[in-house]
Amino acid sequence: MSPKEVENLFYPQKNLQRKEVPLPDFQYYFDRIHAPNSRVNISFCWLDYKEKNPDGYEKSQFYEYYQRFVQKNYGDTKISMAVNRKPGEKMYIDWVGDQPGLLTDVTTSEIMRFHIFATTLGVPNNYHIDYDGHY
Questions:
Q1: Low pLDDT (below 50) residues in the chain
Q2: Please, are residues 112 and 104 in contact by the beta-carbon 8 Å criterion?
Q3: Which of 22, 28, 83, 117 lies 20 to 30 A from 68 at CA?
Q4: Phi, psi at 95, each rounded to 5°
Q5: Contact present, 97 and 116 (Cβ < 8 Å)
Q6: Would you call 66 exposed, middle or buried from its count of C-beta atoms within 10 A (0-12, 13-18, 19+)?
Q7: CA distance 66 to 33
Q8: Measured in Å, how far apart are the chain's first and last C-alpha atoms?
Q9: pLDDT at 77 (0 to 100)
Q10: Coil, strand, or helix at residue 105?
Q11: What global pTM score does this model have?
């Protein structure tokens, strides 16, 4: 064999184990996720991408590249879906932290533990009230 043929066996011109897959149009998916009243999330975007590109990236790699795109272009890796609510349409209730004690009988010093529940009507943009480190 010629020296060039031997070199090509040891150092092939292109990686034979790695397929060349172009990156998805992440700006398109980002815009779909963040469109007003959108119900699209990253999982739906991957399904859409995979349907159009059966030999494309698998879910974990798609998510990784999408996070890198968001970090590079928008400075945030948090992937979330905007939730638009009509004020007062729904009521949310949750308990507030640990059970505080309440002195119920001063003669016996009996302390009763109880739950505190907080409720709020849904408001746009997910506004919350901070109470004792809870929202």
A1: none
A2: yes
A3: 83
A4: -85, 155
A5: yes
A6: buried
A7: 12
A8: 73
A9: 54
A10: strand
A11: 0.47
Rounded Cα distance, 48 and 42, in Å: 10
Residues 62-93: pLDDT tens digits? 999 999 999 999 886 555 666 666 777 777 78
Task: Give the pLDDT confidence score for residue 47 in this predicted structure.
Answer: 95
What is the C-alpha to C-alpha distance for residues 74 and 76, in angstroms, rounded to an integer? 6
CA distance 77 to 69: 9
Q: Among all chains, which residue has been given the structure tokens 């798609």?
A: 62
Locate 71 and state its tokens: 């970090």
Per-residue H/E/C for 36-85: CCCCCCHHHHHHHHHHHCCCCCCHHHHHHHHHHHHHHHHCCCCCCCCCCC
Task: Provide the pLDDT for residue 10.
Answer: 81
Expressed in percent and rounded to 5, the helix, strand and coil fractions of the chain are 35, 15, 50
Q: Which string of b and e fits 26-63 if b means at least 16 CB within 10 Å?
A: beebbeebeeeeeeeebeebbeebbeeeeebbeeeebb
Distance CA 28, CA 69 (A): 11
Phi-psi region of 113 (alpha: psi -120 to 50; beta: other; left: phi over 0): beta
Q: Exposed, middle or buried: residue 79 (CB in 10 Å: 0-12, 13-18, 19+)?
A: middle
